[in-house]
Amino acid sequence: xxxxxxxxxxxxxxxxxxxxxxxxxxxxxxxxxxxxxxxxxxxxxxxxxxxxxxxxxxxxxxxxxxxxxxxxxxxxxxxxxxxxxxxxxxxxxxxxxxxxxxxxxxxxxxxxxxxxxxxxxxxxxxxxxxxxxxxxxxxxxxxxxxxxxxxxxxxxxxxxxxxxxxxxxxxxxxxxxxxxxxxxxxxxxxxxxxxxxxxxxxxxxxxxxxxxxxxxxxxxxxxxxxxxxxxxxxxxxxxxxxxxxxxxxxxx
Length: 252
Known about the structure:
Elements: H1 2-16, H2 20-35, H3 37-54, H4 57-64, H5 77-90, H6 95-112, H7 133-145, E1 150-153, H8 156-165, E2 170-171, H9 186-196, H10 202-211, E3 216-220, H11 227-232, E4 236-241, E5 244-248
Parallel strand pairs: 1-2, 1-3
Antiparallel strand pairs: 3-5, 4-5
């Protein structure tokens, strides 16, 4: 349980950075909870319920997992901070006070927030698909072999980016094996684990690939399939490109 709580804490730090924006949000929550009944009932209570769910270690372990940080988007922190500033401005008719509060709020959010232009968030794209060039070249090589292949692809980079490159490349698995959106079968999860392992069990992989009617298998060059074993299942080494070996079964 302690490990789970620490993981949750790390995710919160990743999402909120140094925590200063989080402190500002908490102050806003407290002020609106105490001083504004309408906002308290319509926004604060629902937000607190969401926070309760997000800080539940059992839900983190069995439901949120690696998607945990994405659920922080459901907490309307920016809205609550904005409402807090508006309520402070409305407290007085003094124009200088209003301008001062607004300027202070803008300054605080600018200073406490992260300037994405200074953190290397923007990089020059290699191609119009906004994926790695190596993935493009591997996908091109696959499509030269079969115009509508069904593939088993190794490495997270390749199987997550291939679907962005072409809808003609059908994947046995993608991010679903990591628990995103929908799950997948235990057999397919095992194929994924075997593909990513140091010493893949290619007897199992080739057998499952045949039964799932996958005509293309791609793994890294460091994990080649024995030619004799591949031929037993109808697969043949086609080419190596950008650190990947491509195998094809023309009988599927």
